[in-house]
Amino acid sequence: MQKGYKGYVSIVLHSHMPFIRHPEIADSLEERWLFEAMSECYIPLIQVYDGLIRDNINFKITMSITPPLMCMLQDKYLNERYIEYLDKSIELTEKELVRTKEDKELNELAKFYNDRFNNLLKTYKEYDCNLMNAFKKFDKLGYLEVITCSATHALLPLISINPEAVKAQLATGVQSYIDTMGHSPKGIWLPECAYTYSLDAILKEVDIKYFIAESKALLYADPKPLYGTAAPIATPNGICAFGRDMDSSYQVWSDFIGYPGDENYREFYRDIGFELPMEYIKPYINPMGIRLDTGIKYYRITGKTENKQYYNRKRAIEKTKEHAAHFARCRQDQISGLSEHMEVPPMITCPYDTELFGHWWFEGPDFIDAFIRESSKDGYCYGFTTPSEYLINNSKVQCCSPNPSSWGENSDYSVWINGSNQWIYRDLHKCEEIMIRLANTYKTPNDLQSRALNQAAKELMLAEASDWPFIIKNNTTVEYAVKRINTHLDRFTKLYENISKNSIDIKFLREIESLDNIFPNINYKIYET
Predict the structure, then answer these.
(1) Is residue 407 part of an annotated ligand binding site?
(2) Taking every annotated instance into account, which residue ranges of this chain make up the domain 1,4-alpha-glucan branching enzyme C-terminal (predicted)?
(3) How much of the chain is helix, strand and coil, in % rounded to 5?
(4) How far is CA 360 from CA 37, 386, 450, in A?
(5) How many angstroms separate the CA atoms of 472 and 468, rounded?
């Protein structure tokens, strides 16, 4: 941490994707979630980081990369599928160059997309078709602090009725991180920033030093923190909590004042996958004829009108620089004001979903790049830091008990447990109790029993993902979410019955080990009481 600054900004990007590996399905729709995030968010951010390093611009960013995402980014099958996806996208952009040649403005955009997809492929190959190679490089160089998450992004307060299940999620998340990164994580992104009192002791047990919290976790903590969210607090067990700063959050997230709504930015909802004739677009969407986003979008937001104007890339990039400069001035004013009343340097924690930057807000990675470059200019009173670096340099932290909360609607857990999805938890809790009993019973299993027990733990964890109740509540791909929960719990139940009867179906076990190949080093004994 450089000296001489009045305070610090900490950008924290939460990178998560549920485990959506489906080798049993030809061209699974859900695989596209991952491929779009790789093309629009992860690779563009890698390109930004590489560009900043190349230009000798010092920066610090924190990124959580959840265990399912880490696993999928390293998966041979998915990486081969992604190459196919990019090759198809490049082929489509080449066709678009021909189709649009009579319209100069449109043809320039077609060329932009052709260059873009070719550059994505180039960067992907530079990192041996494994994006974790890039993130590990940045982590090792000290520009990026990668933190972990619970094993499958389970909303921990909602499974805390079985503390063993919470510990299993956290311990597996930590172990999975170590297996990939080669060192222990210092921090964790609690799924949905959801905190409750019982997590404190378990976080200490798995040796986590800090977590990212919703603003209300700090603002309503007991006793009330002196500095609100402008400095971390320490829980009774000494785990530090960094609270989301709402001013910087609104500037990016808000529907009304957020930068992404600017009329010059790319329109998310207009894609040629939905607009061009079926016979032309069919090879590039789902084989069943289901229209999908191709990532080629020719229009800008324009305003609240159906008559959208063509996207102007140059104007959009100029706008990101304007917004980045505005964001930098706001942080400057904020930190200047706070520092006059604080005995420690203010720390502005800016947590966002990574998928906002590039997917929902196409120019998001360019904004991050422009903000870091702007902030590196002379005259700014703040620097960039990570939570762990801040704690090393500012060890005096107020002890408070954070308020139970989440960053969901109403700052509570109601998005993940309500009339539409509460049925999930009865089944989950029942299977959690069975898994705990199995771990307490089978002290010295044979190899086959051990494999079945480990796979049962995986199936339970995959069913616990917070993604499924979220999807059900938001009424998006509900059928898929319900199927995923029921499939994993059915697999769990069959394994349990096989183990109990000492009659393990080896063919079935081998099949689901191949399908749900997450956490190769899991040990079911983490569920022991």
Answers:
(1) yes
(2) 428-527
(3) 55, 10, 35
(4) 10, 25, 43
(5) 6
Give whole-number Cα distances, 343 to 4, 7, 150, 232, 389, in Å.
15, 11, 34, 13, 18
Q: Is position 437 within any domain?
A: yes
Structural tokens at position 388: 């762990």
Same domain, 405 and 450: no
Q: Which amino acid is at 208?
A: I
User: Does 261 carry a binding-site annotation?
Assistant: yes
Q: Is 467 annotated as a binding residue?
A: yes
Q: What is the mean pLDDT of residues 26-37?
A: 94
Which residue, 310, 348, 320, is CA-closest to 332?
Answer: 348
Average pLDDT over residues 271-291: 94
**Which residues belong to the active site?**
192, 353
Task: Count structural domains, the chain.
Answer: 2
- Say if residue 312 is in the same domain as residue 332: yes
Which two structure tokens, joined as six digits, stand for 516? 């749900």
Looking up tokens 């008990």 gives 401
For 426, other C-beta atoms within 10 Å of its C-beta total: 8
> Do the domain assignments include residue 173?
no
Known binder of ligand: residue 423?
A: no
Partners of 241 in the beta sheet?
A: 211, 233
* DSSP code, position 153: -
The per-residue DSSP string of 370-418 comes to HHHHHHTSTT-SEEE--HHHHHHH----EE-BPPPB-SSGGGSSTTTSS
Q: Is residue 251 part of a domain?
A: yes
Helix and strand totals (H; E) in the chain: 20, 10
CATH code for the domain of 281:
3.20.110.10
In whole angstroms, what is the distance from residue 364 CA to residue 62 CA? 16
Return the closest-CA partner of residue 84 out of 323, 283, 377.
Answer: 283
pLDDT per residue as tens digits for the range 90-141: 999 999 999 999 999 999 999 999 999 999 999 999 999 999 999 999 999 9
Give CA–CA dist 7/5, Å, rounded: 5
Residue 159 maps to a domain: no
Beta bridge partners of 233: 241, 398
pLDDT in tens, 448-470: 999 999 999 999 999 999 999 99
